[in-house]
Amino acid sequence: MLLNDLLQTVSKLSHQDKLRLIHFLLLEVAKEEGCDLESTDNQEQENALLKQLESTEAVVWSPYEAHEAAQTLSVLLADAKKQEGYA
Predict the structure, then answer these.
(1) Where are the alpha helices (DSSP H) in 1-87?
(2) Which of 30, 40, 61, 82 is spaced 20 to 30 A from 67 at the CA atom?
(3) Mean pLDDT in residue range 20-26
């Protein structure tokens, strides 16, 4: 299966299943790195992790309408040009 196909399938999963997938991938990557994160209380740990992830709020920042950031960047670019002798 190609990655694009897999990503389309993953996007159709429920929120709970996506969290389970994240947990699965974390364990798989840890195994590849030589760490064993699994224990006998795996189901209990999974439930605790899922509850923690569910309560986490994601913050997304966008450059749109970030006028102060644009002004700051403009000043930094102008200063860099002056220092390099372009202005």
Answers:
(1) 3-11, 15-32, 42-54, 67-84
(2) 82
(3) 90
Q: pTM score, two decimals? A: 0.42
What pLDDT, on the 0 to 100 scale, is given for residue 11?
93
pLDDT at position 87 over 70: no
Considering only CA atoms, which of 49, 48, 5 is closest in space to residue 25? 49
Produce one character per residue of 34-68: b if its CB has 16 or more CB atoms within 10 Å, e if not.
Answer: eeeeeeeeeeeebeeebeeeeeeeeeeeeeeeeee
* Tokens 């994240």 found at: 22
The string of pLDDT tens digits covering residues 35-71 is: 777 655 667 777 777 777 777 777 777 777 888 888 8
Burial level of 10, CB count in 10 A (0-12/13-18/19+)?
Answer: exposed
For the chain, the first-to-last Cα distance in angstroms comes to: 53
